[in-house]
Amino acid sequence: MLTQHATSGEPIFNQGVALYVEDLKVSFDGFQALGGLSFTVGVGELRCIIGPNGAGKTTMMDCLTGKTRPDSGRIYFGSNLDLRRMSETNIARSGIGRKFQKPTVFEALTVYENLELALAGDRRARFAMRARLSADQRQRLDEVLATVHLKDERDRTAGLLSHGQKQWLEIGMLLAQDPKLLLLDEPVAGMTDEETERTAELFLSLEGKHSLVVVEHDMSFVGTLAGQHRTVTCLHQGKVLAEGTMAAVQSDEQVIEVYLGR
Ligand SMILES: Nc1ncnc2c1ncn2[C@@H]1O[C@H](COP(=O)(O)OP(=O)(O)OP(=O)(O)O)[C@@H](O)[C@H]1O
Question: Which of 57, 135, 207, 242 has the fewest Cβ atoms within 10 angstroms?
């Protein structure tokens, strides 16, 4: 790890680590939401984070995006960027995209127009016109449409999409900006079983091209994502309680005690 870290620019992934979190602590009015959280996510890794309500998952995501400032600890993106010293804007520009639980697409615009806005980078820019896109950009959006299963809905008003399709559109809006790290907060909440399955396929198809951190309570979805080999991290009281394969975490006595139940 370098001793001098930058506060803007692109992450350098020369050590195979996309995200490095060490001993992160956050308190709200004396209540400790994160109590020494440490974990790393590899470049191109798909990592699921689970844990009971109040475990600190959202607070952790808020620290990664600069929304919440930790009291102490370290967060590095790549080997060079010190996220604790970066503004929310610079963190987003460096390639960290976050999707919140509730979709926030522009309902009155078409699917394609939503993607155009995302590509423009500034979601307030309501005048991003199709004609202004370069051939490369149009190709990129076509690829995104295919990736998020919305090719046939391209000219549909976003407000008319199903809940699952709106979630995919929002993921597409993130992908339009080609983030290196995607943070996804309860992405399948409220989805039908079929939509959930397709979302798992989508995330698995993104593995390797992006690093993904998925916070989710739906254990069957987490099981599909984790398969036999990927790492799952279980948080409890603002710390890592257990980390390992799905099978290992699911059979961990402490995880059963505080989260999965008997
Ligand atoms: N702004 C805040 N002010 C005070 N307490 C907060 C604040 N944000 C979070 N907390 C508390 O910190 C703890 C961790 O909350 P957090 O939302 O990070 O948990 P979580 O793991 O995301 O839970 P859930 O699964 O319910 O979303 C909770 O006890 C919560 O009440």
Answer: 135
| CA count, 13 A, side-chain hemisphere, 152 | 3
The alpha carbon of 54 and the centre of ligand 1 are apart by a number of angstroms equal to 5
Interaxial angle between packed helices 163-176 and 135-147, expressed in degrees from 0 to 180 and rounded to the nearest 10: 140
111 and 158 in contact (C-beta within 8 Å)? yes
Nearest CA to ligand 1 atom 31: 54
CA of 174 to the centre of ligand 1 (A): 25
How many Cβ atoms are within 10 Å of 138's Cβ, its own excluded? 14
Would the pTM count as exceeding 0.90?
A: yes
Q: What is the mean pLDDT of the chain?
A: 92
Ligand 1 atom with the shortest distance to the CA of 56: 18
Give 241's contacts (C-beta < 8 A, 6+ positions apart): 51, 234, 235, 252, 254, 255, 258
